[in-house]
């Protein structure tokens, strides 16, 4: 049987593409190895715990954001969501005769759910562009955080919230457990479930998905909802870690999270990407910051590295897509 | 032939070969073009037409062979070299800048300037008018291109190509998205370019056009040249045989299928300002053709029937029971399936693999509960790949990488996988090769034999006349005629369509 030229070409590219997550993990292990050699402290239990906890915090939102981006959308209200959740939780805790802590935690998660639902509603029912919508939500939520706390930081020294951010079970940091459970769930969702498949279909061609009888609006709504819940969960982790609720929490982090997702091979145009890739992206960024700090670089320098890596990696992805024969 | 020898060859491609990893895309293909000649390039998808054209455009490098333009040997390292040699390609997908004016589009990159560096609008518009006049067309150079029809945009692309004295023009399926009238207008433009000495390489799947417009035809198959023939000395059947490499007993494998009960009944279907009281039935075993000119309302009708767009009145009965379809999901529940007109825009998730595309409209039934049963999915996909004769090396192949014919078959497979009984097929063989067309017709006949009913929109007269049991004609939103297969003629159809 004659295979045509286009087919062979694609087969060739397909083989190359398959290994892209693998390449990222190899790069990650090379980085870890390098830092381990350069700094003794890098491999200390304490440092690894801190590093992984930091990774868990931003990794959780990166996971759900991957679904949003695979679907061809975007959610930049993550940072605002995190800030408002932390402010609300700390505010409620410091109320006289406030609700019990367990309820406060639930309220925090409900807040995130509501923010996600709001995004989903506006995007699917009012047909607004997701960037514009979540840009608006970002301003609304962060602004509300400032209003609620009167621009102050509110202390919250409390065991339950503290446990979410700093606790551990059998020496494993609790945020890391959350992170692992969520990623396992997201990997199954995106690879094995009908819902996950619909996300990919919508991202690859929304109109074709609609004509195939897929309830595009429902799927989109739920994915933004998940993004909102994940952000408030990250907000709880950050509140626990810092023992303070403040409206500056998570400022600018949406860009770092987007960076991690894109590093992992998810594009902005939808239909492509994987949770595994994002996991690699999140770990690479986490190791990058921690490792370079351990060998004496400052945050400002590492930001420069982050930008360079992003551009280099994405240009490699592009080069692979447009190979000229 | 003696007259031909006197005319200068403006292009000669000698023994061009090109290998892609794993496949010989072209082997020893020679091709030449005379001044003022329209030379048709025919072949099934994957035959090597695109590769040949891309080598000529400098998009691909060749592995072996030589190219001569106007008798001089040339070497194309990049697309710009090809352009400088006077070669332009008009691709199927137009590249107009829709927010700019006609004149700006034609002269983009070479805008005439005044002393201060500002655009000299007067000269620009005058030049644009002159270029358009060369093709005997009148389009106001100040119009915004986004407001133009597809055909007018195409004219702009041609103008863009010829203003710099292009000698060789490559047209890749230029009529794929044009109606009959616009095609005719395009042919007039081609004829006037001919008289100016421009050589045109004309790629099309529509054999009628090949006979209408070309002087010679070259047929490629599996990367090799089969033959170059003078158009007047060959026949439709001879060309098809050369293309597919086997005798096509019949292009249209219509079988005698007994017509059964009414599956779907549409009564007084109405869309304000677009459609008026459309009524018709589709019976089991029957293919009903839906004919009309561009803008007659055929698209609005089928989109509303499938629940993509809304409608304002009328009843639809399936198996005698009234149904209300306002979303595609509901249509599918009534076992009404739809094959969209544009496979890339509405049919396929191009970045996803073959299997995912085939099960896309039936994903809820692939596995129990919330999870996909991959084994079942592959099983289903494999069945359709075999039944519809889809050529793909693997079920995991991205659909993006397949040829148009195979992509269209995947759209059909996806439709079949829904288990529908009534099928609306919107231009089911648009822009695909002959072999794939026949495969799709065969499958349509299989469906009819299994008791399904098909409503087929087609703008190709031979297709709609040969495959339909009945043909409904719509003009300006009203039903103007209904013919059986026995009584239909091309004249009747066109007459009723333009009432």
Largest sheet of chain A: 2 strands, antiparallel
What pattern of helices and strands is seen along the backbone of chain A? HHHHHHEHEEHHHHEHHH
Query: What percent strand of chain B?
Result: 25-35%
Radius of gyration of chain A: 21 Å
- Main sheet overview of chain B: 6 strands, mixed
Query: How many H/I helices of chain A?
Result: 14
User: Can you tell me the CATH class of the largest domain in chain B?
Assistant: Alpha Beta
Which stretches of chain B of 5+ consecutive residues score pLDDT under 50?
1-6
What is the architecture of the largest domain in chain B at the second tier of CATH? 3-Layer(aba) Sandwich
By CATH, the topology of chain A is ABC transporter involved in vitamin B12 uptake, BtuC
The residue-averaged pLDDT of chain B reads 89
Amino-to-carboxy terminus distance of chain B? 46 Å
Number of domains of chain A: 1
From the N-terminal CA to the C-terminal CA of chain A, the straight-line distance is 23 Å
Report on this model:
The complex is a heterodimer of chains A (325) and B (499). By secondary structure, chain A is an all-alpha fold. Chain A is 75% helix and 2% strand. In chain A, strands 1-4 form a two-stranded antiparallel sheet. In chain A, helix 4 (78-93) packs parallel to helix 6. Chain B has two domains: 2-244, Rossmann fold (3-Layer(aba) Sandwich), CATH 3.40.50; 262-497, P-loop containing nucleotide triphosphate hydrolases (Rossmann fold), CATH 3.40.50.300. Chain B has helices at 2-6, 49-56, 79-84, 102-106, 121-134, 150-162, 180-195, 207-213, 236-244, 298-305, 328-333, 343-347, 354-358, 374-387, 404-417, 434-449, 461-467, 490-497; strands at 9-20, 23-34, 38-42, 64-69, 72-74, 87-90, 168-172, 199-203, 216-221, 224-230, 262-271, 275-283, 287-291, 313-318, 321-323, 336-339, 422-426, 453-457, 470-475, 478-484. Chain B has a six-stranded mixed beta sheet with strand order 6-7-8-3-9-10, sandwiched between helices. In chain B, strands 16-17-18-13-19-20 form a six-stranded mixed beta sheet, with helices on both faces. Chain B has a four-stranded antiparallel beta sheet with strand order 2-1-4-5, with helices on one face. The longest helix of chain B has 16 residues, at 180-195. Chain B is globular. At the A-B interface, helix 1, helix 9 and helix 10 of A face helix 11 and helix 12 of B.
């Amino acid at each position: 049987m004659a295979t045509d030229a286009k087919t062979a070409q694609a087969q060739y590219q397909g083989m190359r593409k398959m290994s892209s997550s693998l390449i990222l993990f190899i790069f990650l292990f090379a980085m870890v190895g390098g830092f381990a050699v350069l700094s003794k402290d890098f491999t200390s239990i304490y440092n690894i715990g801190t590093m992984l906890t930091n990774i868990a915090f931003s990794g959780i939102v990166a996971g759900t954001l991957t679904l949003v981006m695979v679907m061809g959308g975007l959610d930049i209200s993550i940072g605002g969501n995190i800030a408002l959740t932390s402010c609300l939780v700390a505010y409620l805790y410091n109320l006289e005769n406030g609700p019990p802590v367990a309820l406060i935690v639930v309220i925090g998660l409900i807040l995130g759910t509501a923010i996600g639902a709001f995004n989903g509603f506006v995007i699917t029912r009012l047909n607004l562009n997701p960037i514009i919508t979540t840009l608006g939500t970002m301003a609304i939520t962060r602004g509300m955080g400032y209003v609620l706390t009167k621009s102050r930081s509110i202390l919250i020294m409390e065991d339950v919230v503290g446990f979410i951010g700093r606790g551990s079970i059998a020496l494993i940091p609790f945020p890391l457990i959350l992170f692992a459970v969520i990623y396992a769930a997201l990997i199954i969702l995106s690879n094995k479930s009908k819902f996950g498949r619909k996300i990919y279909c919508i991202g690859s061609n929304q109109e074709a998905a609609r004509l195939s009888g897929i309830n595009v609006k429902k799927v989109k709504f739920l994915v933004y909802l998940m993004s909102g819940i994940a952000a408030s969960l990250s907000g709880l982790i950050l509140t626990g870690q810092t023992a303070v609720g403040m409206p500056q929490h998570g400022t600018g982090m949406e860009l770092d999270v987007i960076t991690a997702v894109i590093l992992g091979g998810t594009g902005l145009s939808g239909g492509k990407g994987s949770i595994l890739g994002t996991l690699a992206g999140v770990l690479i960024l986490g190791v990058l910051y921690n490792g370079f700090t351990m060998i004496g670089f400052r945050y400002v320098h590492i930001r420069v590295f982050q930008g360079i890596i992003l551009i280099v990696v994405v240009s490699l992805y592009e080069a692979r897509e447009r190979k000229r024969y | 032939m003696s007259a031909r020898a006197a005319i200068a060859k403006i292009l000669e491609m000698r023994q061009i070969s090109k290998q892609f990893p794993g496949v010989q895309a072209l082997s020893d293909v020679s091709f030449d073009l005379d001044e003022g000649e329209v030379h048709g390039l025919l072949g099934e998808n994957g035959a090597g037409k695109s590769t040949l054209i891309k080598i000529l455009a400098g998009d691909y490098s060749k592995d072996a062979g030589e190219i001569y333009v106007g008798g001089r040997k040339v070497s194309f390292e990049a697309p710009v070299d090809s352009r400088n040699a006077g070669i332009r390609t008009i691709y199927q997908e137009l590249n107009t800048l829709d927010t700019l004016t006609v004149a700006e589009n034609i002269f983009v990159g070479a805008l005439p300037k005044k002393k201060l560096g500002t655009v000299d609008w007067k000269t620009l518009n005058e030049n644009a008018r002159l270029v358009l006049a060369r093709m005997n067309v009148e389009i106001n150079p100040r119009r915004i291109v986004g407001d133009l029809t597809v055909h007018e945009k195409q004219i702009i692309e041609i103008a863009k190509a010829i203003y710099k004295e292009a000698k060789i023009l490559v047209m890749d399926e230029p009529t794929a998205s044009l109606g009959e009238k616009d095609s005719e207008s395009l042919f007039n433009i081609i004829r006037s370019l001919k008289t100016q000495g421009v050589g045109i390489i004309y790629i099309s799947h529509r054999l009628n056009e090949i006979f209408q417009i070309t002087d010679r035809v070259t047929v490629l198959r599996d990367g090799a040249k089969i033959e170059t023939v003078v158009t007047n000395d060959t026949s439709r059947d001879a060309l098809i045989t050369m293309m597919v490499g086997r005798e096509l007993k019949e292009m249209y494998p219509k079988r005698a299928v007994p017509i059964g009960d009414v599956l779907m009944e549409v009564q007084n279907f109405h869309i304000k300002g677009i459609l008026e009281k459309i009524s018709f039935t589709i019976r089991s075993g029957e293919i009903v053709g839906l004919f009309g000119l561009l803008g007659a309302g055929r698209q609005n009708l089928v989109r509303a029937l499938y629940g993509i767009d809304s409608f304002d009145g009328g009843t639809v009965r399936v198996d005698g029971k009234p149904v209300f379809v306002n979303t595609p999901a509901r249509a599918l529940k009534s076992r009404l399936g739809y094959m969209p007109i544009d496979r890339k825009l509405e049919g396929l998730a191009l970045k996803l693999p073959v299997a995912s595309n085939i099960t896309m409209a039936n994903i809820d039934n692939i596995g129990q509960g919330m999870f996909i049963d991959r084994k079942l999915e592959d099983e289903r996909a494999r069945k359709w790949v075999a039944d519809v004769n889809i050529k793909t090396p693997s079920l995991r192949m991205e659909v993006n990488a397949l040829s148009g014919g195979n992509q269209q078959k995947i759209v059909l497979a996806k439709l079949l996988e829904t288990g529908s009984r009534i099928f609306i097929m919107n231009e089911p063989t648009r822009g695909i090769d002959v072999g794939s067309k026949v495969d799709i017709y065969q499958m349509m006949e299989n469906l009819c034999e299994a008791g399904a009913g098909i409503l087929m929109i087609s703008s190709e007269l031979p297709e709609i006349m040969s495959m339909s049991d009945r043909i409904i004609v719509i003009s300006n939103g009203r039903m103007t005629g209904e013919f059986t297969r026995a009584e239909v003629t091309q004249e009747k159809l066109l007459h009723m369509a333009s009432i």
